[in-house]
Amino acid sequence: MARFESALWLPIGANTGGALAPIGALMHQQVGDGSLYGFFNNPAAQVSAHFWVAKDGRVEQYVDTEVVAWHAMHLNGAYVGVECEGYPEQALTEAQIDGFAAIMAEGHDRHGWPLYLVEAAYGRGLGYHRMAGGVNTACPSQLRVDQRSTILERAGGRAPAAPTPSTRRSQNMIASTTSGNGYWTVEPDGAVYAFGDAQYCGGANSPDVVSTVIIGIAGRSNDGYWLLDDDGSVYAFGSAGYYGRGDR
Ligand SMILES: [Zn+2]
Fold first, then answer.
1. Ligand 1 geometric centre to CA of 10 (Å)
2. Cis link prior to 160 (omega < 30° from 0)?
3. Ligand 1 geometric centre to CA of 91 (Å)
4. Cβ-contact 112, 65 below 8 angstroms
5. In angstroms, what is the C-alpha Rg of the chain?
6. Most C-beta atoms within 10 A of its C-beta, which of 66, 98, 99, 160?
7. At 104, which CATH number?
8. Cα–Cα distance for residue pair 101/66, rounded to 1 Å
């Protein structure tokens, strides 16, 4: 059981799934005020989150962090969901930042979450709901997304920081297409370059990604590939599916 010391345990009886080994937390915004316990405890809601952080800093935990909650569709199997009281145009309060920081610090100890900013699906650390591609949501506001670095600093993290140059660069930084008529190369910062019949499907080099050093690429056909970073996270692009991650 993973019930956080920093939270009031208020288990819900519905809207949860199977086992979860969370790789980090996703920030959500409530767009409302008041505890979400009653809402999430209603089977008709079909939605839930692990935590709710009040404006006064109180934290409620509704779902064990080793059990899936229903907060982010295809990312439910990867992340703990953290709802934050209030409205998009309201910044998180100082107390709310402290409450969220306590969750991150405890998640770091319990689950090994790196205290890093995450800007793309399946990165380890602190992400936010709408970072998942294909998710039709404005959750949370940029005002709140930008407060994550303060949350991590208070949790003892080192965000934001520049990526350290990888000492493992000599791995597979080039991948062939199955036709043999093209290839991709990838830089440690996640920039992908496509040649021949290889199609460009995206890279991991967002300027605000601070935690990722890419150490490998593998092609699927000519329209998809995976990138691997130096802490074992896998990023899938194009036709390549995501099937899990490795640990170093
Ligand atoms: Zn959300």
1. 20
2. yes
3. 16
4. no
5. 19
6. 99
7. 3.40.80.10
8. 19
